[in-house]
Amino acid sequence: YAQKNELLTEKHIREVMQQAYDRFKNTSGGANASYIPYLADIDPKLYGIAVCTADGKVLELGDTKFEFGIESISKVFVLALAMQQRGPQAIEDSIGVNATGMPFNSVLAVELDPQRAVNPLVNAGAMATNSFVKASGSAAKWSMIDDLTTRFAARRLSVIQQLYASETATNLHNRAIAWLLYSYGRFYGDISEAVDLYTRACSYGSSTRDLAIMAGTLANNGINPVTKEKVIEAGLCPRILATMMTEGLYDNTGSWVYHTGLPAKSGVGGGIIAVAPGKLAIAVFSPPLDKSGNSVKAQKTLEFMIDELKLNLLDAR
Ligand code: GLN
């Protein structure tokens, strides 16, 4: 173990970041998400890598200050809020924690097993999780989501209004999923309110740096490594990370864990976070996606870095 920790000096992490950057910066393949018009227009060449260590160092390379749609990565932090309020058991019982093995916006997953009601990291379960947040009314719920996000990120993120408008105008499929869940008694509040909160949280602008710090808080037992503030109860982190391990990259999660052994979460904006508990978190941003909706270049970058830094949790060597 001592040997492994020697790999995690600032100098070595920087070297590995640079190697990954040089190796993958010209990688092509994949395409920007096109079903949300705003995302289709983002420069596909943007590329950023950021690391946040559990002791609070933030290392950055490339376009790490560029703010892009956080999209599904927000699901992790709304889950953190609902879990903090209701407890892990209620999340398991009312939302579900098993993998769907299906695309993130699958209607079939709901239809096959509404009792399992998907899980908090796919669209259906994430909208249900928003409906599960305890507060009276949409404004109060949003301010809770916003406050917790701020504490995770160590700064207040803003919603990209153009993205929010773009998604609101085109989220008919999500609305249909929400109604279907509701019909099965697996929705816990007003439908349009929850869909709107979900869509707004997906529309946060976050930089690669922000995401590294947010994920770094999950790597550091719920304490923000930069501000040192306690953001959530330490005991919730393993539960949140477990959902990332089983569903973080949707129907590609099996392959992801097979290669990396780490919990991660992607978003169709092109970001992916990966968490090595107790050690560090890595965030990578590159817009072109594979058919599951995961950034092609971010997956390659992360796989390389996780391997070089020997972060795979399932590898005891
Ligand atoms: N807002 C997007 C949606 O609802 C988020 C999907 C994603 O990032 N996978 O479709």
TrEMBL record:
Catalyzed reactions: L-glutamine + H2O = L-glutamate + NH4(+)
InterPro entries named in the record: Beta-lactam/transpept-like, Glutaminase
Binding site for substrate: S72, N123, E167, N174, Y198, Y250, V268
EC number: 3.5.1.2
Subunit structure: Homotetramer.
Keyword set, alphabetical order: Acetylation, Hydrolase
Biological process terms in GO annotation: glutamate biosynthetic process; L-glutamine catabolic process
Molecular function (Gene Ontology), one example: glutaminase activity
Protein encoded by which gene: glsA
Matching Gene3D superfamilies: DD-peptidase/beta-lactamase superfamily
N-terminal signal peptide: none
Keyword S-adenosyl-L-methionine tagged: no
Enzyme class, UniProt record, top EC level: hydrolase
The protein, known as: Glutaminase
Keyword Hydrolase found: yes
Family statement: Belongs to the glutaminase family.
